Amino acid sequence: MSHHNKELAKEQELLTTFIKNSNTPYEIAVFAGGCFWPMEEVFEKVDGVLRVESGYTGGHKKNPTYEEVGSQTTGHLESVEVLYNPHQLTYEDLLQVYWRSIDPTDAEGQFADRGSEYRTAVFYSSKEQKELAEASRDELAASKRFKQPIVTKIAAASTFYKAETEHQDYYKKNPLQHGLTELASGRDSFLNSAWGKDREVKLHAKIGFNQAFDKEEKLKTLTKHQFNVTQRDFEDPPFENEYWANEEEGIYVDIVSGEPLFSSQDQFDAGTGWPSFTKPLESNNIVLKPDPGLFSSSTQVRSRHADSFLGHVFDDGPKPTGLRYCINSSSMIFIPAAELDKSGYGEYAGQFAKEKLPSES
């Protein structure tokens, strides 16, 4: 296995552990919308989506290759598997994103990509998904937005075969080539013409905390170092940051948005000089991303709503999760347990309520 594939496998393992130890009931949606490169980009930018993978599904060949699917002998369609948080957005939201990203009247492919492997389809994994997909398709047909009939198939999901490494996050790895290809495809001009001002989807996403924030204004209040850490991916110096040895009870929130991130109950001394945690307080508010450094193989931890750089996650932590979230103090504000109510985080106060001794009851 190549070094790059080993790092991808490590990243996948971290993500799997993150999901396993999360209280969030992540769900999966599968869509075929022509070439999977632009479709992956479309869904990865949706707030509430944790991961998007390119692959092949709908056909009969086991473990197909890109070349085999392209030969149109496998029955598979290029597709994307979307892992999302139903507490943040709905399956209907994803359907609306999907319809605004394809030509549902094209039975021979999508835009510049011609062939059966580029046909469109929604693959459902439950009765609810099937009913929602069919209702969404019928509503689109009734709107008369398109002059031609809707031909996108609604079909039961089958095995999803992950595409080769070079096809994952293609738009990130080859931004210039991808941009030029998309420009030449005519996709944007077609969708702008078809949807106009309605092309932008109004999602039903839940923000996950009650405090509104103005990011631009909040950034003005940060120190130069706090700005560099949260916005430019700098690191705090080890053993010389505010919370590395904090033993007080309470929670840590994002310094920009205020979204809850970690709890002192999950904090431990990793001996590294940075605050370390076994798991997030609210996994909804945490995003894991590959570190963009040229020679880096680590996984970044960022806040979902403020997109603050928080630190990194490693797989050398203690049980039960086996993870170590190594976080910069400068990215967070600590709210002591005694101040949670008045600070607007009263819902977490119960976690720190001390049990009364028998003599006190």
UniProtKB/TrEMBL annotation:
EC number(s) stated in the UniProt entry for this protein: 1.8.4.11
Record-annotated MsrB domain positions: 215-337
Keywords: Multifunctional enzyme, Oxidoreductase
Coiled coil: none
SUPFAM superfamilies registered for this protein in UniProt: Mss4-like (SSF51316), Peptide methionine sulfoxide reductase (SSF55068)
Domain of life: Bacteria
Catalysed transformations (reactions): [thioredoxin]-disulfide + L-methionine + H2O = L-methionine (S)-S-oxide + [thioredoxin]-dithiol; L-methionyl-[protein] + [thioredoxin]-disulfide + H2O = L-methionyl-(S)-S-oxide-[protein] + [thioredoxin]-dithiol; L-methionyl-[protein] + [thioredoxin]-disulfide + H2O = L-methionyl-(R)-S-oxide-[protein] + [thioredoxin]-dithiol
GO molecular function, one term: peptide-methionine (S)-S-oxide reductase activity
Active site: 35
Function: Has an important function as a repair enzyme for proteins that have been inactivated by oxidation. Catalyzes the reversible oxidation-reduction of methionine sulfoxide in proteins to methionine.
Family: Belongs to the MsrA Met sulfoxide reductase family.
NCBIfam families: msrA, peptide-methionine (R)-S-oxide reductase MsrB
Protein name per Swiss-Prot or TrEMBL: Peptide methionine sulfoxide reductase MsrA
